[in-house]
Design brief:
This protein has about 300 residues and is an alpha+beta fold. About 25% of the residues lie in helices and about 30% in strands. It is built from seven helices and 17 strands. The protein has a five-stranded antiparallel sheet with strand order 12-13-14-11-15. It has a three-stranded antiparallel sheet with strand order 7-8-9, with no helix packed on it. Strands 10-17-16 form a three-stranded mixed sheet, with no helix packed on it. It binds flavin-adenine dinucleotide.
Length: about 300
């Protein structure tokens, strides 16, 4: 989480600038809002904390109303002792407490980072937004980071060892509640890895029954170049077979591609940096496929910068 890093730097009196290509925060802790009644967490489903730092952050987020515990109706084998925490009213709200008074420049895609005499030049898709900085921190998936630092051959060869698995997703809303009591289904098929009733999460509008379906990494790899509508149809078809009864009327059906969803081969340490500590790279791909690892990576980079 780049925002974790920016927050820590800002709290220590520095003035980080955050470039974000989307129009909102959250990254893969994503929420798609269709209208007042329907939203989906189509990326990260919930977070758990193993370490104290992330636990403390989550406790604060719960206190401030940005997060809450999700208590889905689960099969016994999916139960765990770890609390499942989600953002309210969507997963991307989980990072809201980090944003206060940060200089976040939305809708700007960084297209390159190159060393100049006076520092690092950040090139973007908006030419008026090019600036020189003394330090640069990249917290995008490793395969995307490698394309931004084309001059840094030694770092690129390290990044090339890292990989992330894709995940194809479908968001579907039914006009009536499905008759299955469970809020999470795993049918063990080669197609669907995870099906969750999004409308069972706290403080979601549940006028309708909304589900998020995630394809398995293997299936997602095969269908990665398909149209989003095709992906959604295919995932729904597999869900239909699991449900067995006729499905109610579908109000919304959309597909989404996460080309770099879950860290697979990781870096094995919390971040990567040049020896002169002017360029840092981090994210979940450093240590593992969970938001907590991204959080820890951001914190570790901030500590190294300060
Ligand atoms: C389908 C799916 C399910 C998941 N389930 C879980 C789960 O249940 N529990 C869990 O803990 N984790 C889960 N994860 C993983 C979790 O979402 C990630 O570990 C975490 O969000 C990674 O954070 P990050 O900051 O490293 O990267 P990201 O969240 O990818 O953030 C990178 C940010 O950089 C921006 N960006 C990228 N390129 C550029 C550019 N060129 N210029 C400007 N901005 C750019 C992006 O828009 C994004 O906001 C899941 C992820 C997916 C996709």
């Amino acid at each position: 989480m780049g925002l974790t890093c920016a927050r820590a730097l800002s709290d220590r009196g520095l003035s980080p600038v955050v470039y974000e290509k989307s129009r909102g925060v959250g990254g893969r802790l994503a929420t798609r809002r269709f209208n007042e009644d329907v939203s989906f967490d189509h990326g990260g489903q919930y977070v758990t904390a193993q370490g104290d730092n992330f636990q403390t952050y989550l406790n604060e987020a719960i206190k401030s109303g940005s997060a809450a515990e999700w208590l889905p109706n689960l099969d016994k084998e999916l139960l765990s002792t770890k609390k499942k925490i989600v953002g309210v009213t969507g997963m991307n709200d989980l990072v809201r407490p980090l944003c206060k008074e940060l200089d976040i420049r939305f809708n700007i895609t960084v297209t390159g980072v190159s060393r100049q005499k006076k520092g690092w030049l950040i090139q973007t898709d908006k030419s008026h937004e090019e600036e020189i900085f003394d330090k640069v921190i990249l917290t995008v998936p490793a395969p995307q980071a490698r394309d931004l630092i084309y001059d840094e051959t030694p770092l690129i060869s390290v990044l090339d060892q890292v990989s992330l698995l894709p995940c194809l997703a479908a968001m579907v809303t039914f006009s009536e509640k499905l008759t299955i009591p469970r809020d999470v289904l795993r049918n063990g098929s080669e197609v669907l890895a995870w099906c969750a009733r999004d409308s069972s999460k706290p403080q979601r509008k549940n006028t309708y029954d909304s589900w998020v379906l995630h394809g398995t990494p293997r299936w997602s790899k095969i269908w990665l170049d398909a149209e989003r509508d095709t992906i959604a149809e295919k995932l729904l078809e597999n869900f239909r077979q699991t449900y067995q009864n006729p499905l109610p009327e579908i109000r919304i059906l959309r597909g989404h591609k996460w080309r770099f969803a879950l860290a697979d081969k990781t870096l094995g340490k919390e971040f990567l940096a040049l020896d002169d500590n002017t360029l840092f790279l981090g994210g979940d791909w450093c240590m593992g496929p969970r938001a907590e690892y991204a959080f820890n990576s951001g914190r570790a980079i901030a500590a190294a910068v300060i």
